[in-house]
Design brief:
The chain is an alpha+beta fold. The protein is built from 17 helices and nine strands.
Length: 457
């Protein structure tokens, strides 16, 4: 059977819900191919979930989510096979190829201006995406980032990875705070992973699962659900672009991309794909990441109570010379202390005035933290870290600036990590963070938490 024929057959079987038959056909045609292991893994997962259904261990709704995720993984693999020897970037996206000489930040500016005014400088444009994404866009504009090298590709790959990570944090934050949202093995896999696995973690899959888990709920950002819905169309330009970005980041990690004459073309294609993706995320303009460093009560007998919020906005470039946390007093109300919050709105003082409406903000902590609020010495600039896994009763975080250790690069000295245990001798304030993580994670994880595992009910 020709490649195009058997791929069409498998896609048709998946569309008809006949996963066992689809997997059997794929295994037959991948004999001797290194990707056979991936097909076998999907087959094993499918058999496992069927067994769980028979034993009554997993609910039908949760099993359906897993089967949908397996179908998506198979379709990814088919796309990879189908695109061998071709340019994987969708033709409509590749038609407007962005080269190194193109003023690519202006493409982002044009989309962002649909939501409000945007500055002319690249840094003024990038800041509307928030620190997790912004930092790697900024690195792309540095002398090292402009070089036609694998390091430039790594900056672009991490801008993409951090954008997925950011969307996942937004979705997961809504799941972790609710008691009535069903969990999922992929969510457990993320919360239970160790830090060595985080570079290869499939955030795209996590995003699909978390968004599905929130179905029927009022989402904090509706546009994320729209993007996920579009990704279900394997013929869409968005789907093809995401698979392209995802695939070449994976190849970079596996040292499967050579620094030869073909790299120039790949760099242009990857930049084109990244800009196409980030233009779809322009809605982030309407949201602001903020670190609430401290909340102090201002109250005297016979006077109104005011809660003074000491906060720092996590966008733009700060230095210790020109940045300071701001104060804003709020009568009788307060937000989450020592937390990184995401507000709907671009004027923080107006956002804080409206905290009586809890639907206008969510806490991304403890998935995202400001390490400076736990530091033994007062620090002036926020130090954002994000969750990357756990091991030996410790939770691990990576600094948002950390670069990708790709190929044979090895450990990068400038990368910083943070470990949080039950007792933190050098930073006692982290003890409270550990207690928070135990409380929040325990219903969802199998190793780090001490509570009942909802996933195995």
């Amino acid at each position: 059977m020709q490649t195009n024929t058997y791929i069409s057959t498998i896609r048709q079987l998946i569309a008809e819900g006949k996963l066992p038959q689809a997997i059997d056909v794929l295994r037959t045609h991948l004999a001797g191919d290194e990707r056979l292991n991936e097909a076998l893994q999907q087959s094993g997962r499918f058999q496992y979930i069927r067994k769980q259904i028979r034993l009554g261990i997993v609910r039908y709704e949760d099993a359906t989510l897993t089967q949908n995720q397996i179908s998506f993984g198979l379709l990814d693999l088919l796309s990879e096979i189908e695109q061998e020897g071709k340019t994987p970037l969708p033709p409509k996206v590749a038609h407007d190829l962005i080269t190194e000489d193109s003023p690519w930040p202006d493409n982002l500016k044009q989309e962002l201006e649909k939501f409000g005014p945007v500055g002319k400088k690249p840094t003024s444009i990038f800041q509307h995406y928030g620190w997790l994404i912004e930092e790697f866009l900024r690195k792309m504009e540095t002398p090292a980032g402009r070089e036609r090298s694998l390091r430039r590709l790594s900056f672009m790959a991490e801008a993409f990875q951090n954008s997925l990570r950011y969307l996942c944090f937004i979705q997961m934050a809504q799941i972790l705070k609710k008691d009535d949202v069903p969990s999922h093995p992929v969510l457990q896999e993320y919360l239970d992973m160790n830090e060595q696995e985080q570079a290869n973690f499939d955030y795209l899959n996590l995003l699909l699962v978390c968004t599905e888990l929130l179905s029927g709920k009022t989402p904090f950002i509706a546009e994320i659900g729209n993007i996920v819905a579009e990704l279900s169309d394997t013929e869409s330009d968005l789907y093809g672009t995401i698979i392209f970005l995802f695939t070449y980041r994976d190849k970079l990690l596996k040292n499967a991309i050579a620094e030869d004459e073909k790299l120039d073309g790949l760099l242009d294609e990857y930049l084109t794909a990244l800009v196409f993706w980030l233009c779809r995320l322009a809605f982030l303009y309407e949201y602001r990441l903020v670190s609430i460093k401290d909340i102090n009560l201002k109250y005297r007998l016979g006077m109104d109570r005011f809660f003074v919020h000491h906060y720092g906005e996590l966008h733009g470039i700060y230095s210790s010379e020109d940045f300071d946390y701001a104060d804003f007093p709020i009568k009788d109300l307060y937000t989450y202390n020592h937390s990184v919050l995401l507000f709907r709105g671009s004027d923080m003082r107006e956002c804080l005035k409206n905290i009586h409406d809890e639907s206008t903000y969510i806490s991304l902590s403890p998935l995202v933290i400001d390490q400076s609020v736990f530091a033994p010495k007062e620090t002036q600039t926020p130090e954002v870290y994000y969750y990357i896994g756990q091991s030996q009763r410790q939770y691990h975080f990576a600094q948002y600036k950390n670069e990708l250790a790709f190929g044979e690069v090895g450990e990068i000295p400038s990368n910083k990590t943070l470990s949080v245990g039950a007792k933190n001798i050098k930073q006692p304030k982290l003890n409270e963070l550990y207690e928070q993580m135990e409380l929040v994670f325990s219903p969802f994880v199998g190793v780090g938490g001490s509570g009942t595992n909802k996933l195995l009910k």
